[in-house]
Write a structure and sequence with these properties.
heterodimer; A: about 400 residues; alpha/beta; Rossmann fold; 6-stranded mixed sheet; 4-stranded parallel sheet; globular; B: about 260 residues; TIM Barrel; 8-stranded parallel sheet; 13 helices
Amino acid sequence: MSYFVNEKGYYGDFGGAYIPEMLYPNVEELRNSYLKIIADENFQKEFHELLKDYVGRPSPLYLAKRLSQKYNANIFLKREDLNHTGAHKINNTIGQILLAERLGKKRIIAETGAGQHGVATATVCALRGLECVVYMGEIDIKRQAPNVARMKMLGAKVVPATSGSKTLKDATNEAMRDWINNPVDTHYIIGSVVGPHPYPDMVAIFQSIISEETKKQLLEQTGSDQPDYVLACVGGGSNAMGMFYHFLADEKVKLVAVEAAGKGVDSGHSAATTALGKEGVLHGSRSILMQTPDGQVVEPYSVSAGLDYPGIGPQHAHLFKSGRGEYVSVTDDESLQAGLLLTQLEGIIPAIESAHALAYLEKMKFTSHENVVVCLSGRGDKDMDTYMKYFDL
Amino acid sequence: MNRINKLFQEKKNILSIYYTAGYPGLNDTLKIAEELELAGADLLEIGFPYSDPVADGPVIQASSKEALDAGMTLQLLFGQLKELRKTVNIPVLLMGYVNPMLQYGVDNFCKSCAEVGVDGCIVPDLPMVEYEELYMDVFKKHGLTNIFLVTPQTSDERIRKIDGLTTGFIYLLSSSATTGQNLQVSDQTEAYFSRIAAMKLDHPTMIGFGISSGETFDKACKFANGGIIGSAFVKSLDPQDLKGSVHRFVEKIRG
């Protein structure tokens, strides 16, 4: 079975480009050019130079010894939190800004949830001198104030999304509306493996640097490039797809995707998409999404703004349905505790998103020192407010 | 002959009005249809609301949200339209996004449309390829037409394809924009409308997005078989005087 996109833009039953005609020329332009542009030697050179000298890649693969001892396994952390701007998001924005330049676009728009993608987009726009507009849910603007200030300092205009649940889903709607109204000079940098084809594939390709490096580093450190488990958190799913990408074809590597259960899968306050969702169309692709029987999208909930999304990328929907990936969830409480645990055992404060992946270690059974890679997708600076309130620090 | 083809054969300067089902009152859907026909509208587009209407501007976003909050669903809408053909004779299209339709089941949806006398659909985010491969036969089986959108950026080749797939008319967007903005007919827009006219398509055309007054409607009629009004009409609806506000609006457009 193929886990990659086919020539029609689908992963099994999922994917496609469910977009209004107004977006068709933009998306078609991307579809016709993205693979050619990415494959170009000059693009590759520039992309990898920036990843190395500007982002600080390769990010370390760190064997977390005290955490390993606790779980009776070899737990490796892929340190995306050490990237410039503090998360994996910049891998994608570097790739897309270079692509936008080659398409002759002058204006960049983006959506953001936790603000990490917004900051990563504002950063590359500052770097390349392009106009930047970031849409962000009104609620997220309040709970992620430091990131809003960073975006503004970087010269981006931050526009609050005031419709619907006022979070990531609505910020995405607003960005799509902006793109409809500015069809010629604007490139939309989607931050996750969602959206109409070719976005899920394009973002996955840019994030696949995570698993590409991990394989090399594992080989150096353990003598094998084949871990037993790979874990990552999933909102839309971009760090997970980057972490899974080069392991997809190797069925011996078990892929575990951790969703946000919020206050509990059945609490009515959750973002556990595969547990609660059904097949449908959201933001331009056919996937799995949380919705009412009438097909209205349900407002998700998670303590983590980056996982507070009612869908998952179409490639994830395919991995879930085909059984290639195991999709599980942990609650707000479990992830906050896991964040504290990592901080105290290893001296690393993780983003609450990444803490979701760590929290699932608690539920796994290891027998013989299996090699486990966890994608530490971002650092926790932006979440200090939440940690402070929760732990009364 | 179906109601849509008959309309375009018999009339010029066709006025099509869009409104959101279940707005301003949950049970106003049929009443607005009846009043619009009496007031002189030629064609109706009834929007079934969706939580994430990406192609719509603030007015239709707000009316959709209000209708959903009041409890509007597709099932309820088909119930409200059960007696549609007892009082409404002009063609009626349903307009909305693909996800509610998928959850209802496309075959079921088309069957319900046919049962209540709906003539066709406009589903902006249903791609042409998926329509052709998966749903066209279902639409045809139930005698429904599917209306496609064309923007100034749509290629001639694609417009020809759309002309071949539709059985009703072609919906020309005055510009690439979300709904509810003013129509500015620039030289560029005129060139685009003229380009379409010169293509001598098999199907009639209607111009929509940005028509809000008699003047802009007349402009649309100059270049196409008629015009479509949405946001301006929805905004003009007065819950305290529904009938009066519908008639006043149509009179203002018709002049």
